[in-house]
Every structure is written in structure tokens, then in C-alpha cells.
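Researcher: Here's the sequence for the chain we discussed earlier.
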Amino acid sequence: MSDRFLDPKQRYQVHGAAEATEPMVDILELTIIDCQVGVPSPVAVMTQGGMDEDEPLDLDSEDDSDGGETFTLPAMAQPYVGLRNQFFPAIPELHAAWQRNGYVALVLEDRSTWERLLTALDSETIEPLQVIHWFYEMVDLWEALTPWAGQASLLDPENLRVDEDQILCLRRLHINADGPNCTLANLGQIWQQLLLSVPKTDKALIAAGALAETVAAGKFTQGVAIKETLANLADQLQQRDLGEEPSPLLDLDSLGDTAEPPAHWADAVEAILPEDKAADGAEAAAVEMISDEELLANLSEDDTQGDEGDEAKAGGELSELPTMALPMQLFTLDEVGRTHIGRQRDHNEDSFFAETRLQKIDAPKGPYLKARGIYLLCDGMGGHAGGEVASALAVSTLKAYLQEHWPETDQLPDDDTVRDAILAANQSIFEENEAKGQAGSGRMGTTLVMVLLQDSQALVAHVGDSRLYCLTRRQGLRQITVDHEVGQREIQRGVEPAIAYARPDAYQLTQALGPRAQKDVHPGITRLHLSEDMLLLLCSDGLSDNDFLENHVDTHIEPLLRSRADLEEGVSQLVELANEHNGHDNITAMMLRIKVRPNLEALKAASR
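Model: Thanks. This is the structure I predict for it:
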């Protein structure tokens, strides 16, 4: 360290460094100022190319760009990179790391000002389901950190934080490969410590205390069993708040009004523990879940993992693990749209429209939003200005139709209404073509991707190859729509993808609005439940061509999921970068950032 800089290139400056007279410690935390904020960090540069999740991480590659010094990622830094995709934002972002002169330096995202979990728990309005959800996330992280000897990260209350979206996060990772092994009993003890600050005004919180006591007593030796029990408890809480008959195993009504869990409830917890086979490594994967079939039957199919896109947890657990489906409601909604003519076109044939109506409601359990939105994106085609006319006509027709036929209710329109709106847009363009006597490739037309939003529900419709993508923390970036093109048509007929896309006309559209009569238009329609924080990205093919989004998701899309990220600036940068890579066409993007939060009031109101 020279002249108060950590690195030879003088990027990371020490602010308020420890004095030389202070006693030496194993770990020293310093505040660092990044003097090159606009430049990608060394770790970002190293990982920007992406890694195959099915292959082991190769983190020993060298980079000679650091003034002639080799850049090798130290072992202590590897968990940050290895876990960042699956557990964003729980794992802090690593900016730089090196090992020199007998010490290891890690430059991490500063989370010292983030709310402490202890503070979040010390609230009279804390929801029992939120507490159980945090416990579930802690077990998830425990399993992921075990191969890295990082379980101690969860055993320091000061290291446990929550972000602005109330997601459990860690300040840093505590890696101690040579230290004593941590056990799940240690995790149970931390739960007991955390629950000391929770006002026990709900029987479910007393039940959570009894569960923590059972875990601390060493009754669990596998995280999957704890998650199963937490999921079942959460399921029962939702049954209770909906006024349904609760599961007989964890009878919350029998707890009474005591501040401590009675012995019979602790016995009930122990009674539903799965048969523990963790002692035999060969049989660990065959551990039985809760034996009561009636309780397992209460878990819906949507509450188990196994959907495509879900990743296996670190540690090799590939079984159908339980997940928690908390009741969610909309908390924030942001929208940004951008379009660019591109580098090779003389006019822009793309059109888009966004209308968002928000109503903020303050309630005893916290504020939430009522939302209604119409989001349309069209990519026109046709000679001269035909594509521009077609896309604009489609947008105006759809907007007018929906404003007339989508009543002011809390429901999305039905599929028939949406289909009729799209056919009306097709008819408007078709009649223009007929009136002008256009034929063949001279007929104008347009693609369409549309999202209608009502509170925590969304309807998606599309025609052609304009797309909708969805990004969530757990599933990453997914393409929701399937292009209406020859290649995809052949795949749906059973042709191998490689053969289907070897055709010279593979990317030719099979559907568009305007060139043909209504009988030839069959829009794709699907619905989404907004049950987790997500980004919805509507785009023309000028943005999605050449796997542009997949290649830049880590650097230009995923960071925008954070509330503190500037969505307008982020979408603008995404479009500008696409123009550098895909400037052959017009480029249009419309992004929705949707944030949800747990809330039981909606469940209670629905049950009345």
C-alpha cells in the first residue's frame, strides 16, 4: 500500500486508514474510494465473458494488464464470483482482489449503512411470514456456502443485513476453511438470538421460536429438512389467514397466549422431523421428507422447485426442494422506453407506447400500489415509409380498442378481448394495404409485443419476432415469447433445431399484422403472475439479434433490478451498446422494473 492506494495503478484509495500504531488483527476493514468509477472493475472484466454453470470455475487465469503484475483471484475471493449469479443480491459484489506480501485484499461493495436484520426484526408490525422467509433464505445460503466453508457468514448478527427490498443480504463472507466445522445447531442458536428482538405478538412467531430451539438442539442435520418444515409452517400460516382449515400437525391455535412455546408444541416439531439419514453419506440424498402425506398434499405444485430454469443448490441437492410462496403485492413499478434509428437506416419504423396508472395506498401494514398499465411495441416493415405507418397505426388502434373495451376493474381483460384488439389492429393495416393496392413485399405490416398489467398480474401477447424477456434473481434472463418465424414453426413440428435453422428462410416471419386477413393472424397469449422482483423487457429484433441480451445480461440488465439503479440511464446505455453491436436495424426497448413485497392484508381481504 503506497500513498494511501491499495493497488499500483492507484485506482482504490484508502479513506480513513488504520494507523500503524493500532494492534495487528487478522482482518482489517477499510473504507475504499474507487477513483475510476466509470471503468469496469478487474473482476467485472474477468467475468464479463460469462461462464458455463455446468463447468467448474476456472478462476486462476492471469491478466497482465495490471502494470505487468499477474492478476490471480485469491481463493478467499472465489466464493463471491462462484455464488454471485444464483444469490444476487445476497452476496456482495466483488470489485477487485489480490494477494501480495502475505496479505489478501478484497474490494467489496460497501453495505455498512444497510439496515441490520436485527433492526428490521425489532418492529411491532413485523409479519410472521417475513421472519420465516428470512430463516428460509438463511438455510438456502447455508447450503450454498458449505462447500466454501463460509457458513460462519450467517452466524454473526452484524453481518446480516436487509436491502431496500427487504431481501436478506450479507455484508461480507466469513471464509474459514481451517477452522472448526459449523453445524446447523449453530444456525438455530443465531435464530434464537435474532428472535429475542422480535415482539412475540403472534402465535406463529412463538412457533418460529420453538422451531429455532429444535434446530439449536441438533435435531436437524440437513438443511433440506429445515426448509421443508419452514415451508409447511408458511403454508399453514397462509391457510390460517385465508380462513381455511389448518394442517393438523402444527396447531397454532393450541399455543395459547403464552410468551414461550409450550412443551407439547416443541414435541410436535420433533415429531414431524424427517427420518435423519445424514450420518450415512450414501443415503443422504434419499432423506425422507415429512412423512405425513396430508401435510405434503397441502403444498401446491407451484411450491416445489423443479421448473426449468431453476438451478440446483450448491452442495449437490438436486431433489425437489420446498420453496416458499409468500403472498405478494406490488410495491414499486418503474417504466422506461427508448428507441434508436440505428446506424444503417434512414428512418425509424419502430413504435412504442406506455401508459402507467398508479394509485398509492397507505395501510397499517405498509404502503403498496394499485397499478394498471398498457405497454405496446411494434416493429414495422414495408417499402418507403410503410413500416413506420403500419407500426404507428397498430399502436393507435390497440390503444383505442383497449381504452374502450378494458373496463375499470381490478381484472385483466380476457383472452378474447385481447385477441379482438389485435385483430382490429391487423384489419386497420390490412385495409390500408388494400386501399393502396399494395401487393407482395410492398404490403406494409408490423410485429407486436404487448404487456397489460393489473396489480400483480400481467398478460402478454405477441405477433412476429418482437420479444418479451423476463429477468428474476432466481431464474435469470428468460425469453417469454416464441418468435413467429419459419425456424420455430419447424421446431414445433418436431424438426431438430439445427436442421430447422439451416433453412435459408429460417428467420422469415410466419405472422405479422397487416399483410394478410384476420384468419391468418393467431397471436400468442400468455399470463404472468408477478410474485417476485423482476424486469420485463419488451424489444424489437434490433436489440435481441445475435444473442445481444444474453451476452450482456450480467453487465447491462441484471444490475437494473436493484432499486437504486437508474433505470433511464441503464436502458439508454443498453440501447447505445446495442447500436454498436446490432446497428443494422432500428432498436427499441421498453423495460418495466417491478418490485413486490410480502403482505398478508391482501390474503385477509380476499377471504372476507
